[in-house]
Design brief:
seven-stranded parallel sheet; elongated; binds ligand NAX; binds adenosine-5'-diphosphate; UDP-N-acetylmuramoyl-L-alanine:D-glutamate ligase; binds potassium ion
């Protein structure tokens, strides 16, 4: 799913209005009806108090139009206009008049107004600002937002949590609504997935308001959200007349005394992602544990007991995953540098191998083209330097990826893979995956996919998806706390199978309650 900028969404609105020959007011009505239907199908007329806080732009217009529908269906509402500017939008005013025609008189809130009482079991609709926010809200609006939070009532935001910018991070967190649920029009927004701004978004859902499909299809975006629909076309089926050689040979280089497990996890992950053969290159101390824990893998032992000292081998792998559990001994750094000097094989670089690169930036020039780097936030900081906020980080990541022609897999709650000026934002995964070794598993998965012939960028995007999906399937049995990296590996098979499982089509509520014999 593409992640559009505010400018692109405004252009889509415009194109929709022109092509479908409707007014902007009709589009707002569509949006409001969609929100109303969403609420109504869940609340079924329940008399819970709904407080609607509406700005004076089109986001506020959506809120005011929603209030009219709620009123017409007998809901218990209170409407407030957050009067932060004199510049009211045309469609806001049209909808305000319609509301007054139905004898609903909103309360106008201004600087110094007393804020309304809100019970913790009430519902707040947040329609103060949408994608049009262009400066920090006034102090009194921030105080109003704090008042909403203090109430502890459930907050449903329209389109965006009010106070979130589309392209930068708010300086003052008091000026952003912490939303429990966001109903976002047509497309989710990039800021929902970044660590600095995603914290304001509890859950989100997209409402289709029928924006011009042609515009949406043909417009290129800088970021794309990756889900099953996006990765399915990437999948390459296995052939009947194939053999293990068809699916490549991965070499995992890593491990050191006390950290051999990291290399085992990566090797096993390469196998379960489908690599035909896997060899591990480990220090001597890793030989026996490796052969015991993972009989499917072949093992080459370094002459050194505790860490790698000389990375040379006779085999010809078609991809190398390096760094998991590697350590940063002087000898290992030298061995890694010598190895890079001669290596032409596609490579996935993680953990200590990244740390070595950070300390010896000249080595970055030696990487084969489209090397995949998989840093967690600390490793990324060592690699690209400190950043001001998430947008600054993404800018730096893009220029780093361009400079060294590498695929950067920026790991996090929503891992973002960056290459060729474009970012692929992973939608799945869960906090259970914040556990030792889950990154080692990802390295193995991406390595195993490259072994099978997937291009490095595709392998990264697909690998991150499969890894996250395996983690999501795993927690169905383990819960968050008890998920360990090995269990992600154990569920890779189910993640593959799940690609082809057709999701259950949800039955609309009315239909469900009307059909007494649904199993016929
Ligand atoms: N065509 C339509 O009628 C549609 C409207 N939609 C709604 O329209 C929203 C965008 O509406 P707008 O462009 O009117 O913008 P907003 O309603 O987000 O903001 C209102 C206006 O306030 C001003 N403003 C920005 N920051 C301010 C601040 N800190 N203090 C005071 N004033 C400030 C800006 O001029 C801005 O246009 C979307 O988020 C969505 O909710 C669409 O999603 C659906 C189609
Ligand atoms: N809160 C989270 N939600 C989703 N995925 C997460 C979360 N925390 C971590 N992950 C994923 O788990 C992995 C952690 O990698 P890393 O920090 O390198 O672990 P390790 O070094 O222990 O192997 C990454 O793929 C990351 O995206
Ligand atoms: K809003």
């Amino acid at each position: 799913m593409k992640l559009f900028t505010a400018e692109q969404i405004y252009a889509a609105d415009k194109s929709t209005i022109a092509k479908q020959q409707i007014t902007s007011d009709a589009l707002m009505e569509r949006a409001a009806e969609q929100i109303f239907n969403w609420i109504h199908s869940r609340m079924q007329g329940a008399p819970v108090k709904i407080h609607l806080f509406c700005g004076i732009g089109n986001n506020g217009g959506d809120g005011v139009a929603l209030a009219r529908h709620l009123k017409e269906h007998g809901y218990n509402i209170a409407v407030y206009v957050v009067n932060y500017s004199k510049k009211r939008s045309k469609d806001f005013l049209i909808n305000l008049e319609r509301l007054k025609d139905r004898k609903v008189w909103p309360e106008f809130l201004e600087k110094g107004s007393k804020y309304p009482d809100i019970g913790r079991d009430d519902i707040i609709v947040d329609a103060i600002f949408g994608i049009g926010l262009n400066r920090t809200p006034d102090e009194w609006v921030k105080q109003l937002m704090e008042h909403l939070h203090v109430s502890e009532a459930f907050i449903l935001s329209i389109d965006m949590p009010s106070g979130l910018f589309m392209d930068k991070v708010a300086e003052d967190s008091r000026g952003v609504v912490k939303s429990n649920y966001v109903l976002s029009f047509q497309v989710p927004k990039l800021v929902f997935f970044l660590p600095d701004t995603g914290i304001y978004v509890g859950q989100w859902e997209v409402l289709d308001i029928g924006l011009d499909p042609e515009y949406l299809m043909t417009t290129e975006t800088d970021y794309e959200l990756i889900g099953k629909q996006e990765v399915l076309p990437l999948y390459v089926p296995r052939q009947k007349f194939s053999h293990k050689g068809t699916y490549g040979h991965s070499l995992i280089i890593g491990g050191s005394y006390g950290k051999v497990g990291a290399a085992i996890l990566a090797s096993k992950a390469a196998l379960v992602s489908g690599s035909g053969l896997v060899t591990a290159f480990v220090p001597k101390c890793g030989y026996v544990p490796f052969q015991t824990a993972l009989p499917e893998a072949m093992v080459i032992a370094d002459r050194n007991e505790a860490h790698l000292s000389n990375i040379t081998f006779e085999i010809e792998p078609n991809v190398i995953g390096i760094g998991t559990g590697l350590g940063t001994e002087e000898e290992t750094i030298r061995a890694f540098s010598d190895f890079l000097e001669n290596n032409k094989t596609p490579i996935v670089i993680d953990a200590d191998a990244l740390n070595i690169l950070s300390k010896n930036k000249a080595l970055l020039e030696k990487l084969p083209k489209q090397a995949v780097l998989t840093p967690h936030p600390k490793e990324l900081e060592r690699l690209i330097g400190k950043w001001k906020d998430d947008f600054d980080k993404l800018k730096k990541v893009k220029s780093f990826s361009k400079k060294y022609d590498c695929v950067l897999v920026v790991k996090g709650a929503h891992t973002i893979t960056v290459y060729d000026e474009k970012g692929y934002v992973n939608a799945n995964g869960n906090p259970g995956m914040a556990t030792a070794g889950s990154g080692d598993v990802l390295t193995g998965v991406i390595t195993g996919l490259i072994a099978q012939g997937y291009e490095p960028l595709i392998a990264s995007v697909f690998g991150v998806y499969l890894h996250g999906r395996a983690g999501d399937i795993a927690i169905e049995n383990t819960g968050y706390q008890s998920l360990i990296a090995s269990t992600i590996i154990d569920n890779m098979g189910r993640a593959y199978i799940d690609l082809f499982e057709i999701p259950e089509v949800p039955v609309p509520v009315e239909e469900k309650s009307n059909s007494s014999r649904s199993d016929e």
